[in-house]
Amino acid sequence: MRPGNQKRSLSVSSSDALYHAIPQAPVAANPAPRCLSISDTDVELSEAEDEDVLDEPVVAGYLDPRIRWVHFILGSAVLLPWNALITATPYFISRLSGTSLASTFSSYLSITFTISNFGFLAHATATSKQASPARRVLSAMMALAVLTLLLTLSTYTHGPPGLFFAFVIVNGIAQAGAGSYLQTSVIAVASLFGPGAMQSLFSGQAAVGVAVSLVQVLSAAASVHDSDSPSSTIAPRDPITDGKAEEKSAFVFFGLSFLFLLVSAAVYVWMTRLPAYNAVVMSEDGPGKVVTPPADDDQTAETHGLVSSARRRPDARANIIRVAKANLIYELSVAYIFVVTLAVFPPITISIHPTNPATHPLLFSALHFLLYNIGDFIGRYLCSIPSLLIWSARRLAAMSFARTIFIPLFLMCNLQQGDSSSVTSSSTPVINSDIAFFVLLLLFGLSNGYVCSMTMMSAASLEHNRRLKGRKQDIDIAATVASFSLVTGLVLGSAASFAVRSAVCGGCNPFKG
Fold first, then answer.
1. Of 47, 148, 390, 473, most Cβ neighbours within 10 A?
2. What parts of the sequence cross the membrane (predicted)?
3. Alpha helices in 307-360 (DSSP H)
4. Where are the alpha helices (DSSP H) in 127-243?
C-alpha cells in the first residue's frame, strides 16, 4: 500500500490495549464476540457458573489460502530448532559416549534451552514495538540456518567430548534466542489475519514435530541398513558401532533442516509481496483492523501497523496482575502439563531401551520420538472437533495433574543408566514390552497436545472463560500470561528431570550422571 497523508488509527478495544506478543508455545486465537459486554461491576462467578459455556461459534473471515499455507510453514520453522535438537539426541550422546556427560546431556540441553528461551522471549516481547517484524523474521531465520549448518558440519569434525558438549549447549542457547524473536514476530503478523492464520500457525507447530521425527527415523533406518557391523544386534547401551550410523543420520537430518529454513525465509519474503498481505498489514480495512500512522517507507509502516502506538495505561501492570489472578487455574494447569512432560521426555525416555536385543537402539530412539510427536499432533487435532472440546477449567486442571501417573509408568519400563547398568539391576522391568512402552508414549503425547491446546484456548476465550467477564482488552493479556506460564512449565520441567534422575539412581548426583 502506498504511504499517504491520510491519518490512520488503531481499531482496538475501548481501553487502547497494546498488542502483547505471545511466547514460543502452542497458540489458538479466539476473537471476541462483538455483542458481548459485561461491566466491571459484575459479581464474581460461582464455581457452578464455571461449568457453563457458550456454544455459539465464532465465524472467521475469508483468508487467502496462500497466506494460510505460508503461516503453516512459518509455524513449522518456529519450533524446528527445539525439535531438531531433541530428536538428534542419539547423535549427541554417541559423541559423548564413555563420559559422565552422556547420561545427563538431555537434562542439561533442556534446561539451558528453556531458560534461555524464557529470557530472550521477555526481551523480544518488550522490544516488539521498536522492531520491524519482517526484518526480525528474516534475521532470525538466517541465524537459525547458520546454527543448523554448524551442527551439520559437526558430523565431520571430532574433538574432545567436553568441547563438543559445550558447542551443542551454546548452539542450543543461540537457537533459543533466535527462535524467540522469530516467534514474537510471526505471531504479530499472524494475529492480523485472524483465527485462520493462527490455526495454520498452530498446526504447523504440531506437524513439524512429526515431520522431524519421521525424517530422523528414515535417516536412522538408512544408516543402520548401510552398516554391516553385527553389533546392531548387541544389547542396548553396549557400543553399537563406532558412531558412524548416528553421524550419517544426523548429517541427513540437520542438512534437511538447514534447507527447510532457507525455503521458509524465501516463502516469507514472497508472502510480504502479496497484495493480500499488504491489504491486511497496512490497511485499516483488514481483519485485524490494525493500521499504520503516516510513515516514510513500507517497513516503518509495517512496524507501526503491527503494534499499538497508543500510550500505555498507568494501570497496565495492575491489569496483568488482575487477569493473572483470575486465570490462575489455567496458568497452573498449562505450566504443570510441561513440568510433567519435560521431567521425563526426553531425558528419561531416551534412556529406555528395547527389550528385544535384535532392535538397533538408534532406530528405537528415533521411533520413540516419532510416536510421541504423532500423539501430540493427534491431541491438538482433536481440539478441532467440536464434540470433543472440554472448556471447563476444573476438568482441564484435573486432566493436567492426572498426567503425573506417566512418570512412574515410564520408570517401570526397561530404563537403563550409564553405559550398561540397568536401574533395576538384573531384575526384569515391570513393563517388559516395547509395544507397551510405545503405547504409553503415544498416550503421553496425545494428552500433552490435547490438554495444553484446550487450556491455552480456554484461557483467552471470552465465550468460554467467564473469568474474563467479557473484557475484550483482556484477551491479549490472558493469552500472554498463559503462554509465559507454559514457558515457565518448560523451565521447571527441565529442572525436574534432574530430580527424577536422582530418584531413579538412588540419590546419586544427577548433574554428574
1. 148
2. 72-93, 105-125, 137-157, 163-194, 206-224, 250-270, 328-350, 362-383, 435-456, 477-500
3. 316-326, 328-344
4. 133-153, 161-192, 195-226
Distances (CA, A) of 392 to 301, 395, 465, 471: 41, 5, 8, 19
- CA neighbours closer than 13 Å in the CB half-sphere of residue 2: 2
Of residues 263 and 75, which shows the higher confidence score? 263
Q: Confidence class of residue 35 from pLDDT cuts 50, 70 and 90?
A: very low
Which tens digits make up the pLDDT trace of 343-365? 999 889 988 999 988 888 889 99
Query: In this predicted structure, which of 3-7, 99-103, 252-256 has the lowest mean pLDDT?
Result: 3-7
Instruction: Report pLDDT digits (tens) over 133-184.
Output: 888 999 999 999 999 999 999 999 888 999 999 999 999 999 999 998 898 7
- Provide DSSP, 30-95: -PPPTT----TTPPPPPHHHHT----PPPPP----HHHHHHHHHHHHHHHHHHHHHHHTHHHHHHH
pTM greater than the 0.85 cutoff:
no
The grid cell for 11 is 481499531
Q: Among 1.10.260.40, 1.10.10.10, 3.40.50.2300, 1.20.1250.20, name the CATH number for the domain at 61-504.
A: 1.20.1250.20
Q: Cβ(133)–Cβ(303) under 8 Å?
A: yes
Distance CA 250, CA 86 (A): 12
How far, CA to CA in Å, does 175 sit from each of 113, 122, 140, 170, 216?
Answer: 8, 15, 9, 9, 19
* 3-state SS assignment for residue 226: helix
Q: Report CA Rg, the chain.
A: 24
User: What is the band of 112 on the pLDDT scale with cuts at 50, 70, 90?
Assistant: very high
Mean per-residue pLDDT, 474-491 = 80
Q: How many CA atoms lie within 13 A of 285 on its CB side?
A: 4
Cell numbers 478495544 correspond to 13
Domain parsing of the chain, residue ranges:
61-504
C-alpha cell at 378: 493427534
Contact indicator for 28, 458 with CB cutoff of 8 Å: no
User: Cα(135)–Cα(137) distance, rounded to whole angstroms?
Assistant: 6
User: In the structure grid, which three cell numbers stand for residue 83, read together?
Assistant: 525439535
Distance CA 335, CA 328 (A): 11
Q: Are 497 and 110 in contact (CB under 8 A)?
A: yes
* Grid cell for residue 506: 538412588
Task: Please give the Cα distance from 453 to 27 (Å, whole number).
Answer: 7
Q: Is 121 helix (H, G, I), strand (E, B) or coil?
A: helix
Q: What is the DSSP letter of 17?
A: P
Cα separations in angstroms, 211 against 50, 80, 198, 260, 457: 38, 10, 20, 11, 24
